[in-house]
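debug: dumping io for the single-chain case to check the tokenizer round-trip. Nothing else runs in this session.
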Amino acid sequence: MAAETKQAESVLTQVGGVAESALLVPVGAALEVRDRVVNAIQPWTSRPSAEKELNRVRRDVRRFERRGTVARNRVVRELRKRRNAANRVLRKRRNAAARFLRLQRNSTQRTIKTNGKHAQARTARFRSDLEKAVKPQVDRVQKELQTQTKQARDRCSSSFKAFGCGAADPVSVGHIRPSGSRRQKATKQPLLPQPSGPRK
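debug: decoded output
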């Protein structure tokens, strides 16, 4: 009987502790919030404390500003480093491209000059070969012309002999004057026989 009484008392004690905790927790939380609000408002209730709190806020603002300035400078410095690195890379690539183009241009100019020299040499060789090939033909044509000229001169000389003018040069025929009775005949007859065919 005594054991049951003790057990009931322990259960009631536990239930009372739980109920007391459930009642005291909200009261403690409300008091904690009140203390924080009071602590936050209390520095602004009087002029000296308000000035002191304002100075503290200003110090905090300056500290935040310094930290922001340091962060900004760090970011700007990092961006500047990246920009300079990108500019160096671009400059190197541009210089490499310009050097490559210059080498290609010089190589092309040398190739064009070499090809021009080769073309001139081939042209000179072709001209020499052409002259060598054409020269016999030219000599033969010149010899034929000389032969034909000589034959024509001989025929003219024979024609002058037939008219009794002697073997004079055909160029000097205009200066020859026939003498005696042949003067009239010489003036009437032509120096060379005329063709008997009809005139076209």
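debug: round-trip ok. The chain has three helices and no strands.
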